Amino acid sequence: MAVETAPTATTTGPKLRRIRVTVNGAAHDVDVEPRTLLVHFLRENLGMTGTHIGCDTTSCGACTVLLNGRAVKSCTLFAVQTDQSSIATVEGLEKDGKLHPIQEGFHQEHGLQCGFCTPGMMMTAVGFLATNPAPTELQIREAISGNLCRCTGYVNIVKSIDYAARKMRETAEGKA
Amino acid sequence: MIPASFEYHVAKDIAHAIQLLASSGGEAKVLAGGQSLIPLMKFRLAQPVALVDINRIAGLGGIRENGELQIGALIREADLEKNPIIRQRYPIITDTAAVIADPLVRNMATIGGNLAHADPANDHPATMLALRASVVAQGSKGERVIPIDDFFLDTFTTALRPDEILIEIRIPKPAARSGGAYLKLERKVGDFAIVGVAAMVRLDESGKIAAASIGLTNVGLTAIRARNAEETLRGQVPDDKVLAAAGAAAASAAQPVSDLRGPADYKRDVVRVLTQRAIRKAVARAKGGN
Questions:
Q1: For the residues B60-79, what does the mean pLDDT come to?
Q2: For tag attachment on chain A, is the N or C end more exposed, with fewer CB atoms within 10 Å?
């Protein structure tokens, strides 16, 4: 397994800490400075820029990832806190060239305009649908209330999440 | 934004956390959910030399009813909101957890942090004042129970000593014919309260108010207990006239300042209105309604 060193950590020799995190199923052992935020770790140390930095002040939800299955704002979490944890980002949604139902939903229902909030919206939705597979429209709206879309495309985002919920239920029933 | 550098320690258990705090000479901060602390560190309004991460300490995240309700300090707001015991028997806490920040923040944020941070804009302090709660602090000199009335000393300042950790919140068992509610007016989801009001009432057999307690959010340097409003309710039938008097009393107890959430006079009037609505809802719940 490759050991990746944080580029920010070499300047004045701050104390680094070795963490092991599993991101989208792949383990990474990385030395990080304690003050490195999870979103910077993902984007700069691992080169995974699908997770966006929007407001950087815990307001917009563009940086949302799943931490052990729970949707959290990765700008408000230190990477060192996630040692021995499992993280899911937007890059892990597509599997074997096949879109995740939430991606298919955003495609079919025109759930994105500029696309900036989309990764956070989708990760929030995936975390939410795992706990509530058959949500009402109101519940979907509440679930994404920590994610801002400055194109104000909420109507289609809600439809996209509803599409994914229906698709995932159909798939689950088909398997049962 | 990148916070200033700090030493990062993972506490294995409570004793280890206390030892780490004690050895930092008061310059370390406890890291729980981090949803208030990390933003402060990013703005460099807080620059602790060390963080003591308590997230991996086992046994701080439970909810037990054991004569009284015992809530572990590390329980996440999202879990508090969904907990069936809380929903059925302490709906005022569900009201409160459900309006804190947004669902993503609530997946990390903890009840202990919401109290120990002592931001007058936080929502649990007023609710805990209304519930007559106490908090359990553990430090190098042992454990002590602090009544909630003695806990909030000033904005961002509590009775916790530098080597103490808030480990549990204790809430008296709900009496017969009691009920409570928390109402919050906010500009948008995720914002702090313009005003929040927590009300608890206990009715006697004739339907009069035997006891009431009222807490106010974000209208002073700390959460405020509106004792004068509680007095106006005692022994009274909760009719419109009595509620109006209680609302006026709570408004006079509030000490709001004008800011981007509105002028002081407006906030005082919101206290007046929300207090009446919160008492009305608390009374309905005391009678078995929702």
A1: 96
A2: C
User: Residue A4: beta bridge partners?
Assistant: A30
Rounded distance between C-alpha atoms, residue A52 and residue A69, angstroms: 19
- What b/e sequence results for B210-244 when a residue is b if at least 16 CB atoms lie within 10 Å of its CB, and e otherwise? bbbbbbbbbbbebbbbbeebbebbeeeebeeebbe
| CB B127, CB B110: distance < 8 Å | no
What is the CATH number assigned to the segment(s) A3-92?
3.10.20.30
Closest chain A residue to the Cα of B52, Cα to Cα: A81
Distance CA(B78)–CA(B98), nearest Å, equals 8
Query: ipTM exceeding 0.90?
Result: yes
Residue B97 CA to residue B81 CA, distance in Å, equals: 5
State CA B88 to chain mean position distance. 19
Q: Is the pLDDT of residue B156 over 50?
A: yes
Q: What are phi and psi of B260, to 5 degrees?
A: -65, -15
Which of A17, A19, A31, A35 to probe the B interface (max B CBs under 10 A)? Answer: A35
Q: What is the mean pLDDT of residues B114-119?
A: 98
Domain boundary assignment for chain A: 3-92, 101-175
CATH number of B7-53: 3.30.43.10
Chain B residue with minimum CA distance to A124: B104
A78: chain B residues, CB-CB within 8 Å: 8, 34, 38
- The whole-angstrom separation of Cα B36 and Cα B121 is 11
User: How far is Cα A79 from Cα B127, in angstroms, rounded to an integer?
Assistant: 33
